[in-house]
Every structure is written in structure tokens, then in C-alpha cells.
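Class prep. Write one:
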Amino acid sequence: MTSHFFTRDGSTWMPQYLTAIDAMTCIGCGRCFKVCSREVMHLHGIDESGEILGACDGEDDDFDGELSRTIMVVDHAGRCIGCGACARVCPKNCQTHVAADKIVA
């Protein structure tokens, strides 16, 4: 993969792709989802043991009473363009980003 990326004015730039979100740290606030134009991540419910129950679609998702809390999950990593907007708004710094030149295609 190329290690040289450029902005419109010719400045060099290295995209930082979202690869993971730490479920133990994420508070499910949704800020990252709101700034992402590519729908890379979605809100998922988890139970008391930390097992992911599934995606929350905004309706009364209680997963038969098993829902403990919600977190963001990277479910479409290939859509990420590496802009870093999600990292800038995350209050918990729970995301892992990897430079484009370190990603194996």
C-alpha cells in the first residue's frame, strides 16, 4: 500500500482508519456515530457479562430484559475513510486507529 497521501493543497496526510472500539471503556454516547458520514459503527446492546446482544435500531430494544448498556461497535470497518472525526469527539478515547500505511489490504 502507498505511504504517500496528499490533501487538495498538496500537503502530505496519513489517514488513520478506525479498527476497534474498546467495549469496556465505551459509554455508548453516540458522538462518534453522529459525526461519521460513512456509517462505520453502530450502537449495540450488551448484557451483564459483556456479551454483545445485537444492534440497537432506536426502538424499544431491551433484548428480552437482558440489556445492560449500549456501546459502539465497528461493524463496517471497510467504509472508514480515515478522517479521524470520531476520535476527536470521543470523550473516553476508547477507539483504536491504524495508519493507512500499516493496514494490510
User: Anything to note?
Assistant: Strands lie at 16-21, 41-46, 52-55, 69-74, 95-99.
